[in-house]
Every structure is written in C-alpha cells, then in structure tokens.
Amino acid sequence: MSKQCCEAATPVPVSNKRPVVAVIGNPNCGKSTLFNTITGVKQKTGNWPGVTVERREGLRKIGPEEFVFVDLPGVYSLDSDREALDEQIARQYILSGAADVLLIVADASNIERSLYLTSQLIETGIPAVLALNMMDVASSRGMDINLSLLAESLQLTVVPTMARQNKGIDVLLQAVAKVLTDNTYTPLRLTYPTVIQAAVSDITTTFDSVTPSSSIQYWQALQCLENHFSPTTNEQTKRVSQQLQLAIKQQTGEDPDTLIAATRYEFAHQLTTQVAIQTRQAGAQTRSDLIDKFVLNNYLGLPIFLFAIYLMFSITINFGGAFIDFFDITSGAIFVDGFKLQLQTLGFPNWFQVILADGLGGGIQVVATFIPIIATLYFCLSILEDSGYMARAAFVMDRFMRKLGLPGKAFVPLIVGFGCNVPSIMATRTLEKQRDRIMTVMMAPFMSCGARLSVYALFAAAFFPQSGQNIVFLLYLVGIGAAIFTALLLKKTVLEGDSDIFLIELPPYHRPAIKNLLIHTWERLKGFVLEAGKFIIVMVMVINVLNSIGTDGSFGNENSANSVLSEVSKTFTPAFEPMGVQAENWPAIVGIFSGLLAKEVVVGTLDAVYSNLEGQHNNDNEAFSLSDKFSEALSVTQENVRDAYANMGDPLGLRSLDSSGDTQLAAEEQDVSRTLFGTLVKYFDGKIGAFSYLLFILLYVPCVAALAAVKRETGTRWALFSIFWSLYLAYSMATSFYQLATFSQHPMQSMIWLSLFTAGFIIIWLTLRHMGQQLLAVNFSTAKNA
Q: How large is the greatest C-alpha to C-alpha distance in the chain, in angstroms?
C-alpha cells in the first residue's frame, strides 16, 4: 500500500521556451527564502510525480527574458537512498536534463558541508552558479571567506547573498543569465584515485548512444560505480559496474563509493581551510547557543515546547476560527442564497437550483470556511520553521515519538488535530519520509477536533448534566488511544520499521521575514483550495442533493423524513442496532451521514430532523438581503475576535460544557430547540446508548475536507484504507461498549459480537502483515537488482 517514490518518476514538463533554473542546496541554507525572494508570488505549486513532496516553480524576468525557477528539495547529497524521497527527486530531476542552469545555494556559515553537494553538482556538467547565502550569519560568527579563491577553485561564478535582506539578488540573477550563454564554461572534475578513473572510463563505454553529454556520462558512470542505477541503465552497464566494484574492493580493500565519498569530503575540507578564515575564537558562543541553553534544556525544553505548540494552537483555533463565520456567512450569501435567488428570478427549475446553489455553492461554502483556520495554521508553522525552532521541537519530542516509530516532528501535526484534522493532515508535509507522513496522516483523524466538541456538548447536556467534562475528557483519551493503536498496528505490519537514528542539524535562529511567511502561507493555502477543494465540492454536492431530493423525485425535502438521505439512513439503521440505535431512531443515522460534510453539522441536522419527526416545524423564511448578510458577517466576526482574547486559555472550547447542567442555556449556546434534549433522551437507549453513539462520532470517517486532505497527501489507496479502518474501529468500539454494558440482557448475542470483532482485528492484522512482508520482499528485490 505504500506510495513509493521511484526513480522512474519523470519531472513535470516545463515549457522549452523559457530557460529552466534548478535551485538546489542543503536543508536550512536559506534556499527556499532565496527562491521566494527571486520569484515572489509568481509561483505555482503541486506534487512531484508519484509522491506528496511539494514541487514549487516560479517565474522571474532577467533582462528581456523570462526564466523558470524550480525549487528542488533540500538535500545533503545526490546519493540514492530509497527512504529519502527528497534525494531521489533531486537526483532524478538532475538526471532528466530538464534544468538549463543549476543555482547552487550554500550556507556561508557552514561552507564545508555545502561543498560536498556542490562537488557532486559541478560534476554533472550542467552550467552552475553558486549563491553563497547567509553571509550575515557567517560574519556574525567571525568568518571571512575568500570569494575569488573559492570561485577559482570551483571554476564557477560565486555570488555572496543575504536572501532575507534581499542583498546580492540582482548580481546573482545576472550571473545566472550569463552562464547560460557562456560557451567557455568548463566543469570541475575532482582527482579520484587511479582505479576509480579507470573504472569510470570502462563504464562510459557501455552506455547507450542516446546518453547525454560527456559531462553527464562522467557523472552517471560515477553513480553506477556507487551502485546508484537509473531506470534506463542497461544490463551491460550494470554487469560491468558490479564487476568493477568487486575488483576495486579486492584491490584496495575499500568499496568504490567509500573512495569516491572520501575524495569529495577531502576536497571540501581542503578547500574550506583555504578560503574560510575564522577570526573569532572557536569556543565563542553565538546567540543561538545561548537560546538553546534554555530551549534544549533537559528540564525546560519540554515545557517551552508545549507552550510554543499551545500558543500556536490557541492562535489557530481562536483567532483563525474567529473569521470562520465571516467566510461561512458571506460565501453562503453569495454562492448559496444569493445564487439561488438569481436562479429563481431567471426561472430555472427547482432541481437545477438545488444542484447548482445547494450543491456546487454549498461545496464552495464548505471549502471557504476552512480558509481562515488553515491560513492561520500555516502562518504559525512557517514562523516555527523559518525561525529555526521546528528543528528544536523535533529534537525535544523525538524520544517519546520514537516509541511509535515516528520522528519528534510528527508530534506537531497531531497536536494541531485537536483543533482541526484538515490542517493537521496537511502539516505532515514537514516530515521528510513518506512512511512517517503516511503513519501520521492515518493517526490524525482520531485526534478529536473542535467540531466534534459541539456534538459532545449536546449529548452531555442531555444525558450527563453533572459529569459532562469527565465524559468529554474520556472521549479525548479514547481518540488518543485509537491513534496510538493505529500507529502500532501499522508499525508492526505494512509500515514495519523504526525511524532512523536521529541526527538533526540545528540551524541558527532567524527573525522570519514577513514576505516569506506570507508567500509560504499563500502557496500552501492555494494548494488546499485547488486540490482538496475539488473533492470536497463533489462530496458536498452529492450529500446536499440527496438531502433535498425526495423519494417521489421532488426537491426541497431538506432534513425531512421524505428525503432520499433519510430513506437511505432508515435502510442502514438496522446495522446500528447492535450499538443501541433502534429502528425508530433513524434521525441519528442522518446525523452520521451529515457529519461527513462537517462534524458540527451533526447538531443542526439532529435538531432539524427530530423537530420534523416530532411535528415541531420551524418556518423561518426571512427575505434575503446580501447587504444584511454581509453586515451580519462583520458583526459576528467582531464579536468572535473579542471573544478570541478571552478564549486564549481554552483553545478546545471546553467552556461550552459549563452549560451542560442547564438545558435552556445549552440550547441557546448551541442554537437548537430546547425540546431537542428531551427528544434525544426519548429516542436513545439511555446513557449507554448515548455514549456508544458518541464513540462512533469520535472514531468514524472524518469530514470530506479531511478525507480530501488524506487523499492529497497519501493517495487514493491510503485514503480508502483510512475510510475502512476508521469505520471498522468506530463500529467495533461503539458496539463492543454497548454489548459489554448490556451484557446481562443478552449474553449470547454480546459474546457473538465480541468474538466477531476480535476475529476481524486478527484478520486485519494478518492481512496488513502479509502486505508488509510482500512490500519488504519487493524492496529487497529492487535493492538487490540495483
């Protein structure tokens, strides 16, 4: 099931009319900041083929000509590690020949590390320019770099830059344009041991005639000698390469890749000692060192991390959430109510109005409501990343997360899930490995989001007026337990293995540039709206149409017993009887279906359907006014912003449970009829039936927006697995609780259900285990052939 990145993936084709510049460098060298400074908002984002690693490209005019800049993933080398998606992508893109120029970004404050990758890139023969970035950091550390000697030694143009201050950018762009037309460019070749040079010559003779330039051939021969083959490598080349590897091993006692790497490291070290002069005493502490004394302290590190995440969480939920009503009301007024009014005025039939206004317009409305909270989250995450703190957070949490087979970074998306599962799932892009991303995405939907809390509060007021907070706390613990169980299941089966030994570079702290923060936020938000939004709109359209169309083919049957959605719910109700939902309580199933749109919709749906069922119709047909709706949106938003400051200490919104003992106050806060609480008590099987229903609401399929995010981040197969697993876990947990709680009433029936669920878990375990073994066999075979 793993969505593997293979080297067969080809880059997204780029127009041949514009020169292509590949921007590449180590992580934390300021590469993305430089890319944003060069391209500004003229960017488009997507995924690299076959994987969920973000691909960004942008446009920039240099003189009269427009260039395409492609931001490659940050890598330390071009060695082909099958687990390192970033290295595979960068290596394959270089091999594809899509880039006309390489813009190599190096960290001036850690130049030796950058020179290893630089030496590999220069050997490809692709015209290159070196941007020596973060010169200000190097200067603050007392480093003086001989730029002319560095340029002479590397045989390429070196331009000092400070991307955050927009310094050196114009000179850099001119150098990029110049090297493209410079016919005298001659790439540097390192002096490898004689046996390596001879082997490279022998391997080159086995290449097909379609192999690119001699420089690329030289680099590919080195790659083959290091046992890194491309999908197009012929069998003769593989055979000769492996024979030469064995011969070199016997002759020197070292593997060829060790000799090649040693030569590159020696080159980087020797050149650094020549061009970099340390003017400050080696032991002098930097500002980052002083901050890290507190941030990475054994006793203070965790509290500081939790405070930082809590602050991000509070800002996202309270201040981002304060604008949800504005987007909800205005988009609903424009795309649903206003659009429907226009269609009515033009005389379109009712079914056409439902499909376009309620369906398409309703889908746009749902997407719009996620914009403020996702934008706020991404803005906060960008601050943590650009400031350098995210690496520290990963370090602090790594020991705990490693028990689940995940890196420390994975803790951040999971915490975000308590606010909203959608940004939680999308935040997994900060994880480097596909395995870690998939596992975290599978866990995220079980983090009880804020939308579910409205359902908990409703049932707490109806069934647990004196112990509502305890019930909700228990539900949160169950969700966390389900997430941990999911991680352990995947870790022991289809995603078997552990996170690598934790080695992480701690970049110096920076003051984030507002421009870069906004660009990062905009690009990620745009990706959600354009990619996940399409899926959301289709799903919302289907559910809303089913909720409107009646069994007689008429429209306008929303939240009534006559709608197709209600009839479907009645059909499914017997399947929920083992968890305490009786046949006459079919509105509870309508609530479950409506929860696919958004979990907070469950409360409104239950109120409307139960009211219709009890004959309590609420006819509230006010005349539509766009200006009134806009005024309402502004008024509500102002009130929400004021409340946001007061709610900073309660990002989960648990204060809403304070009214659980007063049904009148609870009804006012949740905007439902006061009689709903009595109706719930009437139709549900007491506290046991209510809690089993809440267990199902907690664990079953997340909303369509979250499903769209899962599909976007992991692919269709993992999205389908997420649906299946969450449904099975929800149904088995809810039913098992109900059967155990009522065991004395029907012991034989309860034993049968519990036995079936136990057998089901065993079958799932064995199936995933088998798939994991098959995947390991495929990977082993592929590695062996390579």
A: 92
Quick check: 74 pLDDT over 60? yes
Residue 678's pLDDT band, with cuts at 50, 70 and 90, is confident
Q: What is the mean pLDDT of residues 647-670?
A: 58
Helix (H, G, I), strand (E, B) or coil at 278: strand
Q: Do the strands 101-107 and 128-133 form a parallel or antiparallel pair, or are they unpaired?
A: parallel
Which are the contacts of 203, defined by CB distance < 8 A and separation ≥ 6? 221, 224, 225, 237, 240, 241, 244
What is the reported pLDDT for 748? Answer: 94
In this prediction, residue 498 has a pLDDT band, given cuts at 50, 70 and 90, of: low
Q: Is the pLDDT of residue 422 over 60?
A: yes
Provide the pairing of β-strand 276-278 with 157-160. Answer: unpaired
Work out the average pLDDT over 483-499. 85
Query: Which residue carries 């019930």 as its tokens?
Result: 471
**What residues does 550 pair with on adjacent strands?**
563
In degrees to the nearest 10, what's the CA dihedral of 280, 284, 288, 289?
160
- Eight-class DSSP state of 167: B
The residue among 693, 694, 698, 700 whose CA lies nearest residue 723 is 700
Q: Which residues contact 523 (CB under 8 A, 6 or more apart)?
A: 43, 45, 56
DSSP-derived secondary structure for 379-413: HHHHHHHHHTHHHHHHHHHHHHHHTTT--GGGHHH
DSSP 8-state class, residue 649: T
| CA angle (760 as vertex; 754, 764 as ends), nearest 5 | 150
**Could you give the CA distance from residue 357 to residue 332 in angstroms, rounded to a whole number?**
9
For residue 757, is pLDDT > 90? yes
- Looking at residue 721, its amino acid is F
* DSSP label at residue 284: P
More confident residue, 721 or 658: 721
DSSP state of 622: P
Q: Check if the beta carbon of residue 455 is closer than 8 Å to that of residue 599.
A: yes
For the whole model, what pTM was predicted?
0.66
Q: Above 90 in pLDDT, residue 21?
A: yes
Burial tier of 13 (Cβ tally within 10 Å: 0-12, 13-18, 19+):
exposed
**Neighbouring-strand partners of residue 69:** 21, 58
Instruction: Please give the DSSP secondary-structure letter assigned to residue 550.
Output: B
Q: Measuring CA to CA, how many Å separate 747 from each of 151, 583, 743, 751, 756? A: 82, 22, 5, 6, 14
Structure confidence at residue 781 (pLDDT) = 42
614: left (phi over 0), alpha (psi -120 to 50) or beta: alpha
Helices (DSSP H) in 464-506: which residue ranges?
468-492
Residue 341's CB is within 10 A of a number of other CB atoms, namely 16
Query: 348 vs 145, 336, 345, 401, 444, CA distance in Å?
Result: 72, 15, 8, 57, 43
In contact, 506 and 292? CB cutoff 8 Å: yes
Written as one letter, the residue type at 451 is: A
Q: How many residues does the chain have?
A: 786
What does the block give as tokens for 166? 């927009």
| Residue 67 near residue 21 (C-beta atoms within 8 A) | yes
Cβ neighbours, 10 Å, residue 321: 23
Please answer whether residues 237 and 223 qualify as being in contact, where contact means their C-beta atoms are separated by less than 8 angstroms: no
Residue 2, pLDDT > 50, answer: no
Cα separation values, 624 from 79, 596, 731, Å:
63, 28, 42
- The least confident of 19-23, 202-206, 313-317, 721-725 is 313-317
Give the end-to-end CA distance of the chain in Å, rounded to a whole number.
22
Mean of the pLDDT values across residues 705-714? 87
**E-strand stretches of 237-302:** 276-278
DSSP 697-738: HHHS---HHHHHHHHHHH-HHHHHHHHHHHHHHHHHHHHHHH
- Structure token digits, residue 353: 């109005």
Give the span between the Cα atoms of 339 and 352, in whole angstroms: 11
